[in-house]
Amino acid sequence: xxxxxxxxxxxxxxxxxxxxxxxxxxxxxxxxxxxxxxxxxxxxxxxxxxxxxxxxxxxxxxxxxxxxxxxxxxxxxxxxxxxxxxxxxxxxxxxxxxxxxxxxxxxxxxxxxxxxxxxxxxxxxxxxxxxxxxxxxxxxxxxxxxxxxxxxxxxxxxxxxxxxxxxxxxxxxxxxxxxxxxxxxxxxxxxxxxxxxxxxxxxxxxxxxxxxxxxxxxxxxxxxxxxxxxxxxxxxxxxxxxxxxxxxxxxxxxxxxxxxxxxxxxxxxxxxxxxxxxxxxxxxxxxxxxxxxxxxxxxxxxxxxxxxxxxxxxxxxxxxxxxxxxxxxxxxxxxxxxxxxxxxxxxxxxxxxxxxx
Amino acid sequence: xxxxxxxxxxxxxxxxxxxxxxxxxxxxxxxxxxxxxxxxxxxxxxxxxxxxxxxxxxxxxxxxxxxxxxxxxxxxxxxxxxxxxxxxxxxxxxxxxxxxxxxxxxxxxxxxxxxxxxxxxxxxxxxxxxxxxxxxxxxxxxxxxxxxxxxxxxxxxxxxxxxxxxxxxxxxxxxxxxxxxxxxxxxxxx
Lengths: 357, 190
Fold this sequence. Notes:
heterodimer; B: mainly alpha; 10 helices
C-alpha cells in the first residue's frame, strides 16, 4: 500500500500548481497554512521564481509594510483601467449593434419599398393590359349587339362584298369561266326591257367614243344604251343569289370553256409564252368584269381582241357580253357576229347569244 | 463578464486577449499576478529616476501588455518574472521572452503526467519510467526529491538536515527536478 502511495507520489514531482494567490502569500509568510497547503505551495515554489522572489522580498519587514497598500493600489489601478476599457468597449459594442440594427432596418425598408413599388407598377401594367384587352371585347360585344339588333341581312352582305375579290384573282382557270359566264345570262333577263325603252332616247354621242374600227365598218343595229343601267349589273353580280341562280344555266358554257382551255395548251407548246401573257391579261380583264368595272374590262378586252390566238376570240366574245350588259346591243351584236365569223370554238355560243338578242 | 473571465485559465485569457483583443481578459490576467508583481518590484522602488511606484507599475504593465501581444507565452509566471527582471536591468535592447530548454522539458513532462491522470495503464507506465529515472539520478538529488515529495518534508526541514539555507535547498530541489525531467525526455526520444 505504502509502495503504491509512493508510486503515486512520484507523479507530484511534475504536477503543475498555480501561483500563490493574494491570500496565500501573507499566510505562508506568517506560517498560517496547513501542512498540506504549505507542501503544495512549496512544491510550486520549487519551479516558480516569481513567487519565490516575492516571498523573499516580503520576508523583509520594510517591504512587508509597503506591500499591502501598494498591492491594493495596483489592483485598483488595473480594475479602473479595465472598467474604463470595458465601459468604452461596451459603449462601442452597443453603438456598433445599434448601427447594425439601423443599417439593417434601412436596408429592410429600402428593399420593402422597392418591392412595393415594383409590385404596384406590375399591377398597374397588368390592369392596363387587361383594360386594353377588355375594351375591344366590350366594343365588339356592343357592335355585335347593335348589328344583331339592327338587321341580320347586313352580315351576309358584308361577307359577300369582302370575299369575292381575292378568290377571283386566285381562282383557277376552270373556276373563272363559271363566274364570268354569269353576267351574260342574268343581265339580259333583268335589263331586256331597258334597251327597248331607252334605246330611242339614248344620245348618239356616247357610242362614238366607244366605237372601235369594227364598229365603224358595221352600221349600228341598235343604239347604245344609257349608262344608268350599268350600275345595276354589278349589284346583281355581287349578290350571292345572282351568282347561284345563273350557275346551272352557264354550266354548259363553262365546261366548254374549260375543255377548250385544256385542249389548247397541248397542240401549241411553242406559243405558251404569248398565251401565258394573253391569259394573264384576259384574267385581269375578267376580274374587272366580275367586279363590275365594265369600262375598264371593255378597254382591256379591246386590247386583247387584236391578238391572233384563242384569247383574241374569247376576249371578243367577252367584249360582246360587256356591251350587252351595258345595254349597247348594237355593238354586242356586231361583236357576236365577228366571233361567229371567226369560226372558232365560241361560234355556237356567239350564235346562240345573237339569236337571243 | 469579469466574473466569467476570472474563472478562465491563464492560457485562455492570453488567447482571448490576443485573438479577440479583449482588454478585459488582459486586465484579469494582470490582476491575477498583480500582488506578485508588486512584491517583486518593491526593492527596486524609489531607487532612481522613473522608479516611483506611480511611474514604475504603469510602465511595467504597459510593457507586459505589449509583450503579451507578440510573444509566445508557455508559462505566465516565467514570462512576468522575465519581463520584470528585464525592466529592472534597464536593458536598451528588448530581448523577447523565450522559455529555456529546461523549462520546456519540464513542461512536456508535466503535460505527460496530466494526460496520464485519466488513464491508469498509462499512469503505471509513466510511474515505472519515473522510478527508473529517479534511480539514475545522483544520490544527492535523489535524496532531496524523495524527502521533499515522498516524505513531504518542508524546505526548512531539508535545509536544516543538510545545514544549508532554504534558498539553497530550493535550488537543489529545482536542479534535481530539472535533471529528472531531462532524463525522462531523453528516454522517450530513444
